[in-house]
User: Fold this.
Amino acid sequence: GSGVVVEFGELAFHLRAYGDLSEEELDSLCQFLHQRVVAREKTALKQLRACFRAFKSVAFPNCEP
Assistant:
């Protein structure tokens, strides 16, 4: 491996539904949250790819002197 570890830890959310939401409202809420998570994942992947390109542009082809 490369010895590089990347961690993204800000993708959590908590939801409390006290039982006063209808099935339709819960389904709609789940769909909305799923769309937000997918969008955030895509953004994070774009950022990771940009970091990779930046590191690759200044990296040596190998570690030998």
